């Protein structure tokens, strides 16, 4: 990678992330030691969900309110965890301003860091009392008193050792600080909202218009050229990068239904919005480059993206390196065949998403399990897939003047072009020399990075260490700002048109 650039949190708001194009960036050394898992609970207290570092009001603890272990929450898709609090996800999702789909995706999971990164503020526990159903379980420990011969619990303010209690969801004060600077900078620059500006909407409707016109002409005229099929593949990629991506991150509009509708453009180009949200919103963005929990970090066994976590030769899980770090002889040549694999990426949304929807298993792994609350969107996605295959494969065979083999070849060219374009830039985002690889993510969505593992102990530093920026504002116009991966991972709900400004 290129030379590192340090962040400047104390600088001008518009330049607080002064990362140059093509650089592999790292944060400056920590200003002071600060642990990010700072949400704690005291048995019987009135501030169960309150953060130690930030004075944010919290709901009063109701007498007799139940405790939940993380394992129990994981078995209950109608619940989700924020900090130490357990909320009714099934009830709240229909009231969520950003749409029910996002809350549904975190059913049975920890949504603490997801909320913070998407809202750039601390969770408003004080207005969520109607949905509060309990707290994370704190396993009690006892003290035997030899003088009285009795067993007593410690007073409420004392907390059990971390290894004997459920850990709270991660909370990152540094991320909140930077988010505040970014919000102020957007306002000061006259941008106002962090959502899509007018010129981005013009681009969105422009891409959709050209795409519709080209596909319509192919069917109406019965003539489809090889060059036209190639251009159609690029347009599919631009839909994925510029439209569905922002929409499925909730970044296009403050209105949830608008994001949901435009998010379905992922289904229009052959993917699945539901599976995309599961892979990116629930997993990849929270567990970036976590060798056990980030599906995007897993090229096993075809390619080897990393050699294990940041601590050389040691894994915090069983003392063994993760399976994805396993070396095979053909990895000597992966720099030669990687481009062929990338072009085959077009088959992933076309075939992989269909199988995942039918069997309701993301990537076939139990640890990536889908929330049952997402089933309505899963059924919709299956129906849209049927329409896609009719439009993308069946109708061209019926209406095109070419023979079936030639028509299928042109359809395949479209898929290879679009998939290859996407995969090429995806591979650059988090796989570069010196990229941080971590382990600490858990199946339920919580994270725990022990101090002895020498891994970055907060969300901001892990994201910067594992993400890269390439080129600049010009490429951002074509690629939906995804060449600014650092800004995108820190602020996924900011529309991509703002990334060059935030970076500069």
Automatic annotation (TrEMBL):
Source organism, top-level taxon: Eukaryota
Listed Pfam families: Cyt-b5, FA_desaturase
Keywords: Membrane, Transmembrane, Transmembrane helix
Sequence intervals crossing the membrane: 226-244, 256-277, 336-360, 372-399, 411-428
UniProt xrefs under SUPFAM superfamilies: Cytochrome b5-like heme/steroid binding domain
GO CC, one annotated term: membrane
Protein name: Cytochrome b5 heme-binding domain-containing protein
Keyword Transmembrane: yes
InterPro entries, A to Z: Cyt_B5-like_heme/steroid-bd, Cyt_B5-like_heme/steroid_sf, FA_desaturase_dom, Fatty_acid_desaturase
Lineage, broadest ranks: Eukaryota, Sar, Stramenopiles, Ochrophyta, Pinguiophyceae
SMART domains documented for this protein: Cyt-b5
Any GO MF annotation of the entry: oxidoreductase activity, acting on paired donors, with oxidation of a pair of donors resulting in the reduction of molecular oxygen to two molecules of water
Residue stretches of biased makeup (Polar residues): 35-50
GO biological process, one term: lipid metabolic process
């Amino acid at each position: 990678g290129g030379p590192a650039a340090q962040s400047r949190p104390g600088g001008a708001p518009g330049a607080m992330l002064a990362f140059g194009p093509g650089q592999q960036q790292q944060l400056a050394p920590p200003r002071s030691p600060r642990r990010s898992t700072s949400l704690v609970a005291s048995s019987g207290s009135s501030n169960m969900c309150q953060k130690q570092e930030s004075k944010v009001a919290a709901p009063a603890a109701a007498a007799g309110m139940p405790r939940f272990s993380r394992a129990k929450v994981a078995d209950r898709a109608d619940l989700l965890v924020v900090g130490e609090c357990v909320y009714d996800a099934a009830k709240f999702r229909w009231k969520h301003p950003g749409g029910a789909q996002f809350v549904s995706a975190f059913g049975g999971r920890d949504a603490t860091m997801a909320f913070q990164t998407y809202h750039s503020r601390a969770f408003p526990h004080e207005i969520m009392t109607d949905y509060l159903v309990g707290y994370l379980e704190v396993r009690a420990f006892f003290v035997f008193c030899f003088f009285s011969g009795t067993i007593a619990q410690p007073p409420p303010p004392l907390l059990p050792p971390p290894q004997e209690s459920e850990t709270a969801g991660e909370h990152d004060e540094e991320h909140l600080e930077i988010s505040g600077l970014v919000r102020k900078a957007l306002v000061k620059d006259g941008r106002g909202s962090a959502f899509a500006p007018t010129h981005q909407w013009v681009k969105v409707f422009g891409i959709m218009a050209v795409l519709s016109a080209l596909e319509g002409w192919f069917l109406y005229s019965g003539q489809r050229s090889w060059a036209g099929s190639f251009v159609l593949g690029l347009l599919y990629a631009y839909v994925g990068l510029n439209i569905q991506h922002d929409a499925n991150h909730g970044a296009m509009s403050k209105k949830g239904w608008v994001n949901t509708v435009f998010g379905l453009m992922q289904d229009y180009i052959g993917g699945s919005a539901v599976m995309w949200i599961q892979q990116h919103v629930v997993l990849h963005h929270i567990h970036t480059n976590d060798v056990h929990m980030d599906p995007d970090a897993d090229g096993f066994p075809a390619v080897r993206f990393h050699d294990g976590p940041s601590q050389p030769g040691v894994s915090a899980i069983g003392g063994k390196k993760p399976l994805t770090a396993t070396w095979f002889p053909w990895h000597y040549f992966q720099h030669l065949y990687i481009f062929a694999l990338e072009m085959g990426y077009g088959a992933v949304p076309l075939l992989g998403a269909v199988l995942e929807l039918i069997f309701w298993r993301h990537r076939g792994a139990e640890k990536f399990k889908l929330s049952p609350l997402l089933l309505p969107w899963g059924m919709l996605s299956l129906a849209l897939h049927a329409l896609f295959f009719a439009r993308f494969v069946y109708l061209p065979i019926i209406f095109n003047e070419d023979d079936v083999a030639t028509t299928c070849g042109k359809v395949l060219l479209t898929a290879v072009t679009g998939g290859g374009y996407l995969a090429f830039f995806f591979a650059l985002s988090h796989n570069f020399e010196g990229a941080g690889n971590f382990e600490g993510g858990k199946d339920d969505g919580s994270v725990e990075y022990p101090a002895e593992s020498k891994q970055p102990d907060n969300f901001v530093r892990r994201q910067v260490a594992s993400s890269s920026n390439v080129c600049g504002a010009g490429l951002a116009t074509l690629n939906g700002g995804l060449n600014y991966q650092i800004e995108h991972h820190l602020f996924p709900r900011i529309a991509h048109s703002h990334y060059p400004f935030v970076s500069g």
